[in-house]
Structures are given as C-alpha cells and as structure tokens.
Design brief:
By secondary structure, the protein is an all-beta fold. The N and C termini lie far apart (61 Å).
C-alpha cells in the first residue's frame, strides 16, 4: 500500500487532533469536553482538492442558556 497518512478517530486527544509516527498517523476527535469527563478540545480536519490537509480547532465546548418555554 502506498499511503501518505492514516486518519483515525475514537480516541480523546487534548487539542482535538494529534500526530503520531512521524506524522504518518493522525487522530482527529471532534467532541470537546467529551461526556463532561474530559477537558479536551475538538477539531475538524479539512482535505482540499490537492489532498492538502488543514485543521480547524481546537474547538471549545459551546454552552447555551436555557430559554423559558413559549406559551
């Protein structure tokens, strides 16, 4: 196999993404503050038409203020 990079998920990483193995493996995790038990950020990986990878993140947890039910 002629692979440049392997992208995987399902592992909490502190900054939302983390490289391993001389940048041949990257873990991307998009859920900030996972299950309320971790103090992690989330990230999103973008791949353009030239296969150039970039990241948006870290993404912090957004909270909203509950509203009163409308009548």
């Amino acid at each position: 196999m002629d692979l440049d990079i392997v992208v995987r998920g399902h592992q909490v990483v502190e900054d939302g993404y983390e490289f391993f193995g001389r940048r041949g493996l990257v873990t991307v995790f998009s859920a900030p503050n996972y299950c309320g038990e971790f103090d992690n950020a989330g990230a999103v990986m973008n791949v353009d038409e030239n296969l150039l990878c970039s990241f948006q993140g870290p993404i912090a947890l957004l909270t909203t203020t509950p509203r009163e039910p409308s009548q």
